[in-house]
Amino acid sequence: MKQWPYHFQSSMSNVLVIVAALMAIFIVIYGLYRILRNPFHYPYFVRSFDVSRKRNVDIEDYIDKYLCSEFGWNCIVEHHNTIINWKKRTESYIQTCVLKKRRTRQFYEIIDDNFAFRFKTVRDQTRYRQQNYVKTSYKVSVLDSEIAVDWDWLVQRHRKLGQHRTIAEASAVESPIRQETIGFPAHFFARAHNFKPPGRACQPEADSPMRT
C-alpha cells in the first residue's frame, strides 16, 4: 500500500481543520443573523389595474371604481381586519420571546399604517429577444403609476362616493307630472338620468381590469 509523505498528510490535515473552522464560523454567523434579523413583515394590501392601450390614465379614477364595487370594498374591509388581527397575534408572540425588547422595537419599525393600502397601474409592453438570428416577442408588465394610502383615506373617499351616488339616484327620481308639464315624455328622462358623464362616478367593475 502506497504511503503518502508525512508533510503531505500534515498539510491535508491543516486544510481540513481550516475548512471545518470556516464552516463553523459561517454557521455561527448565519445563526446570529437568523436570530437577530427582523422576522416581521407588514401585510400590505396591493391591487394592480391594467391600463394597457389606454391614455390619460388617472389612478384615482380606478380606485374610485374599485371602492364603488361591492367586491372591492369588501376586500379592503377584510384586509383591514387582517391587519388588526396580525398586530394582535404579533404582540402576543412578542410576549413569549427571549429577545422581547429587540422584537418589540423591530415590530414597531415595520408598522406602516399610513401607506398600508397600495394601488398601482401597469401596462403591458412588447419586447424582443434574438437567438440564432430569430427575433421573438414577449410581454412584460411595467409600472405606470402608484399611490399608497391609509385606511382613513379610503373610508372617507368611500363615504363621499356613496353620498354622490345617493344624490345622483335621488335626482333621477322625477315626478311624471313635472316631466310632462315641460313637454318631454317620461321615458326620455329615464334614459337621460341613466347617463353618467366620464369622471369618478361609480362604474361597473368590468370597466377596470384588475390584476392581483
Write the SSE topology.
Elements: H1 6-36, E1 45-50, H2 59-68, H3 70-94, H4 100-110, E2 117-131, E3 134-149, H5 151-171, H6 176-181, H7 186-194, E4 210-211
Parallel strand pairs: 1-2
Antiparallel strand pairs: 1-4, 2-3
Give a verbal description of the structure.
- With 212 residues, the protein is an alpha+beta fold.
- It is built from seven helices and four strands, in the order H-E-H-H-H-E-E-H-H-H-E.
- Strands 3-2-1-4 form a four-stranded mixed β-sheet.
- Strand 2 and strand 3 (134-149) form a beta hairpin.
- The longest helix has 31 residues, at 6-36.
- The N and C termini lie far apart (68 Å).
- Across the major sheet, the strand order is 3-2-1-4
Distance between the termini: 68 Å
Largest beta-sheet characterization: 4 strands, mixed
Report the oligomer: single chain
Low-confidence stretches: 174-212
Which range does the strand content fall in?
A: 15-25%
Q: What's the count of strands?
A: 4
Write the element-wise H/E pattern from the N-terminal end onward: HEHHHEEHHHE
Helix content: 40-55%
Which structural class do you get from the secondary structure elements? alpha+beta
Computed CA radius of gyration, to the nearest angstrom: 31 Å
Principal-axis shape equals flat
Mean pLDDT: 78
Number of helices: 7
